[in-house]
Amino acid sequence: MDETNLIPDRIATTLRRFPPFSMLPAESIDELADKAQVRVLVAGEKVWSQGDPPGTELYVLVRGRVEYLIITDGQAELVAVRDEGDLLGLTPLLRSQPARTTAKVVEDTVLYGLPWQRLQRLLAEHDDARHYVNRHLFWTSRLGGETETMPGPEDNAISGRAKNILQAHLAGGKVIQPRAIERLLTCSPDTPIRDAARIMAQRRVPSVLVVDDERRPLGIVTQSALVKQVVAGEMPRDAPVEGLMASPVITVSSLSSATAAILLMLRERIGQVCVTEDGTTDTAALDVFTNKDLLAQSGHHPAGLLREFRHARTVGRLRELCDEVEEFTESYLDAGVSAIFLGQICAELYDELIQRLLEMAVAEMTAAGTALPAVGWAWLSVGSDGRREQTLRTDMDNALVFADTDDPAQNSAHRTVFLDLAERVVTKMVECGFSRCQGGVMASNPRWCRTATEWKAEITTIGTSTEPEELFRGIVLYDLRYIAGDAALVRPLRQAIIDSVRGNAWLQRRLAELVCETPPPLNFWGNFVVEKKGDRAGEFDLKGRALAPLRDAARLLALKNNQLRRYSTGGRWEDLRRNVPKLAELAKVAREAYDVLLTLRLTTAIARHDSGRFVDPSKLTKLEKARLAHAFDVVRLVQTHVRLAFSLDNR
Questions:
Q1: pTM confidence score
Q2: Long-range pairs for 622-628 at CB < 8 Å and ≥24 separation?
Q3: Torsion of CA 508, 511, 515, 518, to 10 degrees
Q4: Which end of the chain is more exposed for a tag (fewer CB within 10 A), N or C?
């Protein structure tokens, strides 16, 4: 071997151990290694000082330890610690701004300095590596300033609101296949509505695309818009379609997968999606697809499963469909779909499952000569089901509410019938692969099958009770969500929950204490804190020590700030980010952290065939450990905010 190549070869070998370099081609790493500079520093030296201009190299910490300090009035505040495999100096390089911290060496350190301009070009060409760097930037942005992202190639395959769903194409997805351009029905914006309707009828299509002279999409006119605005409304038929069209047009690239496009349509609740040359409205339209068109191209997907659930006639068939839900859950996780978003998809499917099981149970009772009482009733999901976060078939959480009569004996008789209904549904859910709740949170339990008055009284009592069990029941109830039956019975219950918490400083404080009572399993030096003995030795409780604090904080802050539109933890953090300016930054990182933690729990559950609650950190990759450590850091930030916001004692 040529001795002159020894150092670059060693550098390349080392770089391949760490992300994002492990995600780059071997020849790219060799090229970086040839240009790398080795820098050795001893404890006490500085890599850079606060205020220094950005250099031309990105540092990789190969050995040692570096602390990030913010110097204010001569006082140093420790804000972060970097160790083996971490990237140093990325934020100043990307922003072309002076360093906001001082990087001080605390253990003898070896750094590799890599040429930033060349590395930047490589990252733009490789999605996985760029995504890792974006994640690194996201977490480091908590030191202050705006979150940045690495620019990618001119990749506009997905436009507008679709980016958060379709950024990563689903692995194995079939690419959309635009049909002959002659099939595309278009018109200009000044075309009279009458003419547009006529050509739609002649071609028997549900929409017409409005385009400019270069066939770029401007809007879309649908049959439903024609009926609502023209037939049933007052819009004149000779008015131009520009006043009727829906705009902007949701677009995808011809390089998008059909499955991803369907997910987009589900998320945006649209009936058609437009395919353009580059996925934006700035290039020519190639085709317009309906959900049915895409079904023929994509194979199995959530929309198809939803229809299968609605038409299933046996519990055995429903069990098969639940198996398929978990199969696509695993494939979507592997493809990088957000765990929060995936929970929303699964919730829609499981809601449909429960409605079908209710229909089957009612039919059985009717056949046996038992009729449901002539009072309103509603099936509720509570707990994780209520938050739309159940993606795998773990234990169920549900309840039932029914309308009161003036006769207590009649109420008792009605309860007996509804308990029969609930037991039939719960039994069928078990047959479909779900587990009975060990805590008894099921509509088949008399404590979770109550009249509307009884539920309201209990919700009110929770606000004054000192019993821990009552608080637990309250937390489960606070996430209640209507599934089937009479929705009018559920709205007063949700309002009762809001009223019981709003203005009740004592209850808010109790809920805040619950958020803060358990610290995340990460010590000051960045090491995971695990159980020392017992069946869980070497593991930590991901649910109890990380997911639960973020979940409970989102619920508490949403109630306090009147952000009540969403049920899910991710949705609550998103509403807080959008609508409560003082919480915007905290809510943003909290939602991202929750998604990371939820994804880890799901992947752990799938790998170990259990609930995924406990995690062995020794089984994680360096990238997973880094993400997890950052997420735990956010949990601590959220707990600190809650302590201050609700005036809890320092701990």
A1: 0.61
A2: 622/18, 622/19, 622/85, 623/19, 623/132, 624/600, 625/528, 626/85, 626/86, 627/135, 627/596, 627/600, 628/528, 628/596, 628/597, 628/600
A3: 130
A4: N
